[in-house]
Design brief:
By secondary structure, the chain is α+β, with helices and mostly antiparallel strands. 38% of the residues lie in helices and 17% in strands. It contains eleven helices and ten strands. The strands form two sheets. It has a seven-stranded mixed beta sheet, with helices on both faces.
Length: 343
Amino acid sequence: MTATNQSSPNANLPQGLPLPAAKAWVAGIFISAGVSASAARSVAEALVTAEADGFKGHGLARIETYLAMVRSGKIDAKAEAKVSHPRPGTILVDAAHGFAYPAMDLAIGNLIVAARQQGIAAAAITRSNHAGAIGLPVETLARAGFCALLFANSPAAMAPWGGNRPTFGTNPIAFAAPLEGRDPLVIDLALSKVARGNIVVARQKGEAIPQGWALDRDGQPTTDAAAALDGTMIPSGDAKGAALAMMVEVLAACLPASLLSFEASSYLDGDGPPPGTGQFLIAMDTQGFGHGNFAARMTALAQNIEGQPGTRLSGQRRFSTRAFAEANGLAIPPGLAAKYPLP
């Protein structure tokens, strides 16, 4: 791990719950709601790690919305993801309208085997749900020796460039690559100017959002988080971001035969049918191209970047924030702690 970052989001909060205890606590919440133990553990791992990494919009703030989806049947609490291998290099995982995280775990396990054998493999996940902080799955693959890409579509939140109706989700992209002797390079970005989860957190806290993040339902700029969630997100890079969102839609919805973003129900409540969105992963063995020079080339790239004042490799902040949480525990929001007693 990298050195502790004293400006961590958890730095000024009360002493927290150790991460293993936090994962057991979150898993217990979902087991009590009828979620299978294996799925609950997978969800807890994802939410607690996202919270520890500083991605609070994909962390503990999701507990209540996930529970609402479980109660309504929008998430099948007992779903078991199924895997098939249509071709030697392709994997299809049916999440069966359960949580995305167990399906992602299954995809990663199968990808490691297939990409190790063939040098490259792809996994499509269908009938899925909110995939959270998608830097985590590609980090797992990078630590196993792969370059990895992940694309995820999500319920409609952005209009095509020049349009006025939500058509694409924030449709995040993640990439990771190994670095010898240290934490991997991890890139995780939504194609909106900001991840929608940040606006969800702002609404929960009753806080305004910065100008330039979103438009209301009439297409007017807004700083009201609730109005933003009822309107559209502004794409990162304007027309370029909208074009990338369309690319993700093809890979994460059309290839797996998942629902398109404008067909999917919200991730934020228990209303409507399962969202049925998709994810698409590619794993490339860094030793699969006939030479052993990948590590040296990555080291040279990292040294060039880090040798410039004011720069850092993408993903390193998450690791320093995680290290702080591992050392000091996780600060649990008081409302959650009051509702679900801590161990």
